[in-house]
Amino acid sequence: MKFLILDLYTNNNWRLVKDTAGGYGTGNDFGDSIISKSINKFVSRAISMPPMYSMYVFSVLKERGCDVIYSRNIVKEEVENADYIILTSSIICHETEVEALKKITLMGKKIFLIGIFANVVKENYQNNQTYIIPGEPEAFFSKINLNKKTLNNYFDEQSKKNISTENYLVENLDNLPLPDWKYYTNKYPLRNNFLDFNSKIAIPITATRGCPYSCFNYCTYPLQQGRKVRFRSVKNVVNEMKHWINTLKTNKFIFRDPVFSINRKYTVDLCKEIINSKIKISYLIETHLKNLDDELISLLKESGLKLVYVGIESSNSSVLKDINRFTVNNDDQYKLIKKLVDNNIYVKSMFMFGNPEDNDETIKNTIDYSLKLPHQLVQYSVFTPYPGTPIYSLYKDKINEKKFEKFNQYNLIFDHKNLDNNKIMNLKNFAYKKFYLRAKNVPIIMKSFLSLVI
């Protein structure tokens, strides 16, 4: 059986990653000033990875004896030789994917759609030669019979009536085969040059899936992974690290967990397992500041943590309350970030402009607040009411953007009561200029740019 996994991208001058934003993807359009465009160019070269589920599907099919190709381009010969096409879906490349879908359909191919966005806007991807896989596609391809008679039933209208519509989830994450990063890195870059600021291969890795936090109101991760947290065993995670250290000669890892330290005991056990195994690694996580304390920060540092992303969103408590975002108070944010930095852990704080209760003053206050925190890196994105999230129902009649590819987390895509997209663009330009042109940030900027050539 021959499968072709197509993971297609639109052409932009900024980084596009489908794995972020809960599988919807993000495109870092930081702004249109000289400074913002320079950051766009740097990040597009510094960060590159596919949606993890596409490579898990690749490995599941390969383990089951299938011939599998992963490609970011439509090559006529590869399409013609494949028995089935598997097409990734996202919001950031939606129109590009739909256009490709039409082209492949005309070639007479049957197409499996994977990724949460195809499940949210089914009508845009459905035709008589497509089947949208509900839930996690790794679980689907692990369970079904891989013969043409069974697979063709998913495209036959009469047979579809007897097919279960269950939302597939991987019950035991330890049972998944490792993503075939060796195959992938022979074709495409796999990098995150912010972490440890070197050009080593950066391996995406997960320890947990699922997130129960209240920001599911606007966050897409629970749509992709559910709200119940599932854990890999710590030995399984560390064994994967050892595997890539041995096979790809890299010790650089990017944890893709929605909230890395969501369970303190598990996180402590994982750190201790890494330390006791005596592997020397560098890794990146995203977490919530409320999950950190002195003991855990010490363990994270000892186990190899180099960079942590933390979501702050806004300095205004009323703005945060309106979007149901729980956070720690500003004084504690400062103290926790300082503890991380004092432990030689880089911190990237993430802020969000254009929240429903934002105005020019609240955003400028947030920018001023971001300048006072002791972190080294920042990200200023834009509030986006995503289709499929609970909050979308409040905004669907206010959406003024027709192309889903503009829903990249850096555009204001709805009629805001206080702001417009031009204002947001100017505020982004202003914020990045204010933060990154300060004398204290010159060393880290130079280190970042040098990481692309060393």
Q: What is the level-2 CATH architecture name of the largest domain?
A: Alpha-Beta Barrel
* Tally of structural domains: 2
Structural class: alpha/beta
Overall outline: globular
Percent of residues in beta strands? Answer: 15-25%
Report on the structure:
The structure is a single chain. The protein is an alpha/beta fold and 454 residues long. It has two domains: 1-178, Rossmann fold; 190-450, Alpha-Beta Barrel (TIM Barrel). The chain contains 19 helices and 17 strands. The chain has helices at residues 34-46, 52-63, 76-81, 94-106, 116-120, 122-125, 137-143, 148-153, 157-160, 181-185, 221-225, 234-247, 264-277, 294-303, 317-322, 330-342, 360-372, 421-436, 442-450, and strands at 2-6, 16-17, 26-27, 47-48, 67-71, 84-88, 111-114, 130-132, 191-192, 202-205, 208-209, 230-231, 252-255, 282-287, 305-313, 346-353, 377-382. The strands form five sheets. A six-stranded parallel sheet has the order 10-13-14-15-16-17. A five-stranded parallel sheet has the order 5-1-6-7-8, with helices on both faces. Helix 13 (264-277) runs parallel beside helix 14. The longest helix is centred in the C-terminal third of the chain and has 16 residues, at 421-436.
